[in-house]
Specification:
Helix content is about 75%, strand content about 5%. The protein is mainly α and about 350 residues long. Helix 6 runs parallel beside helix 9 (about 240-275).
């Protein structure tokens, strides 16, 4: 049996919290829910509404519902019983399906609001970065070094493993196909160009999205829940310069270095696969790779990594700022940061590849 003792004041400020906490405990499927109302002295429509919804949830889950008032001096329990008699049965309520025009209007409003919030965030971030460049001594370089260590140094093991295995897999697959065409030496071309131009920056970006993007969203979202972001605004501190700029600059500096390191590990993976599969020596493979690769091949990956870093850090911080005042919304914003980051990375990667190919670079 689950017993819930309502607080003396059941209004909009705390009624929703009472509902959410009770809802979590109802997930354990108790046989009965007992709500004690003897302490309630003040309430409003929100307090009554959440209790009515809670009773509906109990009826749908086939859990017994009981109210204990102990005299009910303020008439709260009586008001709740009268409201129960007036409303229709919970399971008999059918929500009307919105018309296509209403649905289209809601989606358009949601997308336009999201676009305006995104535009405002990009503007604030651009101005904050410009102010940091104009006044570098005011920047929080200690925090930037901290985020560089978190997103860069701590990511080296997973980056090494993922990119090395990617090069290894690519080398094995290329060796099997090139061997049929008597083009064994071209395996170094395929692996080197694929890793430096595409797979290296893309895999590092995916790793940073899962590590840095989600961490940024969770950190700022938790600060939102604890009212720390509002406290910064109250003290007259620019939250963009204080919270977001160190993260963006730290990740933007580190990601090209991680990409360069990932390219090296990917090429080594291809080297191992090729030497184990084909009769090609280590010196021949390295010489062919250095002959084929140019500075611009590596530069394409560096340019992509900078763009990806701005996207990952920006989306992670934006989703964290959009989190509401609950732990559930923090988790939702973290998930949204990863999903949005992956989508934007693939989208911008395709766009940059088309641009580079279009202009013959």
């Amino acid at each position: 049996m689950l017993v819930v003792v309502l607080p003396p004041v059941l209004e909009a400020d705390n009624a929703v919290a009472v509902y959410r906490e009770t809802k979590k405990r109802l997930a354990r499927r108790p046989k009965r829910l007992t709500v004690k109302t003897h302490q309630v002295k003040e309430w409003d429509g929100t307090g009554l509404g959440v209790l009515v919804q809670l009773r509906c949830d109990c009826e749908k889950a086939k859990i017994e519902w009981q109210i204990e008032s102990d005299g009910d001096p303020k008439g709260f329990a009586r008001t709740l019983r009268e409201l129960k008699e007036l409303e229709p049965h919970c399971q008999g309520i059918a929500r009307p399906r919105p018309s296509p025009l209403v649905w289209l209007g809601d989606q358009s409003y949601r997308l336009s609001s999201e676009f305006f919030r995104l535009t405002a965030f990009v503007g604030d971030l651009t101005l904050a970065l410009w102010q940091t460049l104009r006044h570098p001594f005011r920047a929080r370089w200690g925090n930037m070094l901290y985020y560089m260590d978190r997103t860069g140094t701590e990511a080296l093991p997973i980056t090494s493993m993922i990119t090395f295995l990617m090069g290894l897999i690519l080398g094995f697959q290329a060796a099997l196909q090139m061997q049929k065409l008597a083009g064994d030496m071209y395996v170094a071309d395929l692996v080197g160009l694929s890793i430096t131009r595409e797979l290296g920056p893309l895999m590092v970006a995916m790793i940073c999205t899962g590590r840095a993007g989600s961490a940024f969203a969770a950190e700022i979202g938790t600060m939102r829940v604890n009212d720390e972001v509002d406290a910064l605004t109250t003290m007259g501190i620019d939250r963009t310069c204080f919270l977001i700029v160190p993260k963006v600059i730290g990740l933007t500096v580190v990601m090209p270095l991680l990409t360069l390191y990932g390219d090296l590990m990917g090429v080594l993976g291809g080297l191992l696969a090729t030497t184990l599969t084909l009769e090609i020596g280590v010196q021949s493979y390295i010489s062919r790779t250095l002959e084929v690769l140019t500075f611009w091949d590596v530069g394409q990956g560096m340019i992509k990594s900078v763009v990806f870093a701005l996207l990952i850090a920006g989306v992670g911080c934006l989703r964290g700022l959009q989190a509401e005042r609950s732990a559930e919304d923090v988790g939702r914003s973290t998930t949204s940061a990863v999903v949005s980051g992956v989508f934007l990375i693939v989208l911008f990667d395709a766009a940059l590849t088309i641009v580079f190919s279009r202009f013959g670079v």
